Structure formats: structure tokens, C-alpha cells
Amino acid sequence: MAPDDSDTTTTKKPALYDVLGSATAGIFSRCITHPLDTAKARLQAPASSHGVQSSTSPYRGTLDAILRTYRCEGIRALYGGFGAVIVGGTPGTVVYLSGYAFFRDSISSQVQNWNQSRADGSNGDTTTKPVLTSGQEFLVHFASGVLAEAVACIIYVPVDVIKERMQVQQRVPTAATHATQNTQYTGSLDAFQKIVKTEGMTGIYRGYGATLASFGPFSALYFMFYERCKAWSRDRLLSQSRDGIQINTPVDDGDLPLAYLVGCSAGAGALASWLTSPLDMAKLRLQVQRGRAATAAGDSTPSNQSVQYRGMMDCLQSAYREDGVRALFRGAGARVLHFAPATTITMTCYEKCRSFYANALG
Predict the structure, then answer these.
(1) Which of 30, 110, 232, 260 has its CA 20 to 30 A from that of 135?
(2) Mean per-residue pLDDT for 117-139?
């Protein structure tokens, strides 16, 4: 019985480190970068949601959106939807990062076994286990990112819907009282209750496809770039005669120096977020449109008159007709400014916390 207990401990502990590391990383990241996410949401939202009948954004850029929101509505508006993000987003981050590690290791093992079977059939050499080719590594990381996002979106979608609807609403204090005008939701719980009441429980998941279409490519591209950057970092460290870093093993990367982890995560986050910005813009507009339509109708059947976009592609085409490529990438700067530090903090903290918990609890 002793060997079995030992085996169970060794197989369960890495999963525990993933959970603890991802939870810690998610909370740190959200606290610091949420105002940037609010600025991104307001830049991407259709101008009519701010009471401006124009195809252009009422804000001149990320800094202008943050400053104007703070001056007119206070710090609370910059952290609109933050409660939902912490309560629901933290478990989502745990599922996302732990899920990615699980899918990456599982798929890598399957591909290595397939390579081994091909090697056995060709030359009968079973002394070494074939490593993944560069193309196989890209595909493993791409597929793992999409699968992790698909599972995490079960938690992320309700959080995302609540967060973005609260971020794009305006809180304008009246002169005589502390009450607010043009405020549909008073908090994350109120937003959840009203969305369920007007659209039903299934309504809060109607954005699952759009969210996955936006964040699925982001996750796939991000982890492709991130893992590739880490491999280059290990190559560079080995070329400088620093031993102890394994190039072909895609786990336990907390041993990389902090500067390398920061560079890898920031670069991957910035590039992936910029490339997928049009998809994020379309997703947000569809979510905001659904909320306005359901509220106007007073039930779960929005009127056709409130429907401006018929789907993801129609939204992208409509944005392109507004102002060309510039409209597609409206808010891209804010998205990069949000995701680059967010992914940097999240992944760096995740890698280092995994190592810390492994040493502390191991």
C-alpha cells in the first residue's frame, strides 16, 4: 500500500500547485489591470450606448477614456463589474490555466507516443523517446489553448457578460444627491439578477459562441507565442552555459529568470491581443446589443428593431463599413495595454507561485 500512496501523492501535487498558482495570479492581475479593461470596453462599445449618435467613439484614446470616466463617474466606474470578475473570474482562471497544463501534457504525451510507434516501426530503436517537432509543438500549444478556453468559458461567459455591461454603462452623479443617472445596474449581483430576469438563464450563455470565437484564437495564439518564447529563452540560457534548464520539457518553467518570464508573457500577450482585437470588439458589441434589446422589450424576446448586428461576421462587416480597418481595431491599443500587463502578471505570478508552492508544500 505504501508505493500506491506515494504514487498518488506525486500525481496529485502538481495539480494542486497549478490551482494555487493560478488562483493567486488571477487575483493579482485583475486588481491591477481592471481599469484598462474598462477603458477598452468603452472604446469598443457602439457610441449610441453612451448617448452619442455617432459611428465614432466619444473617447480619443485609452488615457482619455480612463480620465474622463474617473472625472465624470468616479473610481467605482473604472472598476465596474469587478465583483463578478473576482468571484467568478478567479475560478475561471484556475480552470483555464490548470486546464491548459492538463491538455498540453496529455496531447504532448499522445503525440510523443505516436512518434515512438513510428520510430519503432521504422528502425526498432526503443532506447530514446522522440521529442516533438517544432510543427507538432505549435499544434499542441494551439489546440491546448483552444480547449482550455472552451472549458473555462463555461465560467467566463456569465462573468464577461456582467462585467462588460457594467463597464459600458455610465454613472453620472446628480447635483443634489449621490444618486446616478443612466445607470441600469447597481452592482454585479444586480446585473446578474436583471439579466436572468429579462433574458433567462440560457440568455446569459448566448454569448458563449462569440466569446469562444474571440478568446479561443487569443488563447491559441498566446500560448503558441509564449511557449515558443520560453523555448528560445532556454536555448539562450544554455548557449550562455547556464545548466539545469530543460529545453524539451514544457513544464516547471518557474526556474526561468524573472526577466525572461516577463519578456515572454508580455510579448506574447501584446501580439495575441492585438491580432484578435477585431474579434473582441465584435463580441462586446453583440453582448451590449443583446442587453439593450432585452431591456427594451422587457422580456427574453428582443424586438427586431433593436437588432443592429445579426452575428459576428455581420458586426465585423458593419464596423469595417463605418471606418475601414481603423474601426476594426478601435480599442486595440487599450486591449494591448490591458492584456500585455495582465498576461505578464498572471503568467509570471503563475509560474513563480507554482514553484513557490511546490517548494513550500513539497
Answers:
(1) 260
(2) 72
Cell 521504422 -> residue: 122
Give the whole-angstrom CA distance, residue 49 versus residue 160. Answer: 17
Q: Are strands 172-173 and 180-181 parallel, antiparallel or unpaired?
A: antiparallel
CB within 8 A of 135, min separation 6: which ones? none
- Rounded Cα distance between 20 and 353, Å, is 8
The per-residue pLDDT for 33 is 84
* pTM of the complete model: 0.72
Sign of CA dihedral 233, 239, 240, 244: positive
C-beta neighbour count of 361 within 10 angstroms: 10
Most confident of 131-140, 156-165, 303-312: 131-140
Q: How many CB atoms lie within 10 A of CB 22?
A: 28
Please report the DSSP string for 52-70 in residue order.
--SSS-SSSSHHHHHHHHH
Confidence check: pLDDT of 333 > 70:
yes
With a CB cutoff of 8 Å and minimum separation 6, the contacts of 3 are: none
User: Which residues have CB under 8 Å from 60's CB, separation 6+?
Assistant: none
Q: Confidence band (pLDDT; 50, 70, 90) for 254?
A: low
Return the amino acid letter for 4. Answer: D
